[in-house]
Amino acid sequence: MAKSCFPKCRLGKIMGWIQIVLGGLVIIVSISTLSRFYAVGFFLQNDDICRHFHSPSVSYDGVDMAALTARFNEVLNQMENLQEKLESTVQKMEKDGADQLQSSNISKFEHKKYLEEEVIRPLYRAHIALRQIRLPRVENSTLKEDPMINAFVVEEMRKYITPKGNRVGKVNIYGTERVYNTIGHACTLMKEEVEEYMDYDVGSYCKDDWLQGQKLMLRGCDPLPRRRCLSRASKLYLRPHPINVSLWLMPEGRNVRWSNYQCRNFECLSSKNPKRGYSKCTGCFEMEKEKLKWVVNSSLPADFLIADVLGLKPGEIRIGLDFGVGTGTFAARMREQNVTIVSTALNLGAPFNEMIALRGLIPLYVTLNQRLPFFDNTMDIIHSTGFMDGWIDLQLLDFILFDWDRVLRPGGLLWIDRFFCERKDLEDYMYMFLQFRYRKHRWVIAPKSKDQVFLSALLEKPPRSL
Prior knowledge:
The protein is an alpha/beta fold. It has 15 helices and 11 strands. Helices cover 39% and strands 14% of the residues.
């Protein structure tokens, strides 16, 4: 009996092991399959899965769907508001009753005015807005649209940002088939303000709204869109003084539009006037004080003289940039040494740009946000004073300094002039200036107050030959 049972028992064990192995393989395959389903998102909400199975075959890459949706929602809201207004009017009429309506003294003119202002005009605006929505075009099975075209309503703004194709249909000298006009990306966050800025009659005079444009720039809408209206000038504009006297003579106040300032003349901008409207660059509209800067020895060791700086590189400093708030005095002094300096300026409470230009110097109207419009390795010197101080964010300063390094030529000078900050923050700012490993010609730290210090430095950019 034992012998006859042995083959059967052995066969049963073999079959059992085969079943165990097959079961293990099934479990492994099942786990592998489930893991793949989990990875592609079948057990979780995954937009890619939905788009894969339910979207049309055309790709939506390059389409600003958020702007397109916002424009449709804008039109729908206009239509909904109009519907609610009409329904409330009808309900009021039903509540008042026909007898009261007949006895009312509403004239035909008032009925007409109501229909025009409350019905026809809103309906017309919604109709125009709907027709202006630019639907994406299909090119090579991919939907394409002009960048940000649906983010704005004002027609002049839409014309500006629409790409302009080459008339001959060929690639232009810049290597493109069309030209794209640039605006700051933050312009879409200030849609109403930008559209107000671009709402004008083509060829007519611009509104006196330069201050609004500057506010847009400071809030990140930089560069601003170009406009096709004529800029305004002072009604009493006179010829500027000759170049041999304009550098140190107070300009003619009638050459400035004063409508957006607290002062109405240059005399009002005196440092003795607490209501002058600006806080930076104290005394910079007083020529007698300005004549002393950078040429007369000061008791403060952080003050450097122009003659000493130019003496480090005799004949090599020819062109440069003055980055700060001022009336161009640094550029005037450098011009006397046959050095051309471009001065950055914003009209922060006073006509700094006009003042610099009337002195026969070059104002560059840029903000901290903007990349400098100079090519790499072109400036002999960059000078900064009175603007970038301890209030500035370290990461923003990092971007600015790298941009300065880009435009400064090898062997060029970086002049940090009386930068001040809290004593506790000095090491952080020192690292920002020293990270480029410039050669130190001068490096001075002087006390400004109990808790603040001045930092002045004269640094030379290394060759970095590759």
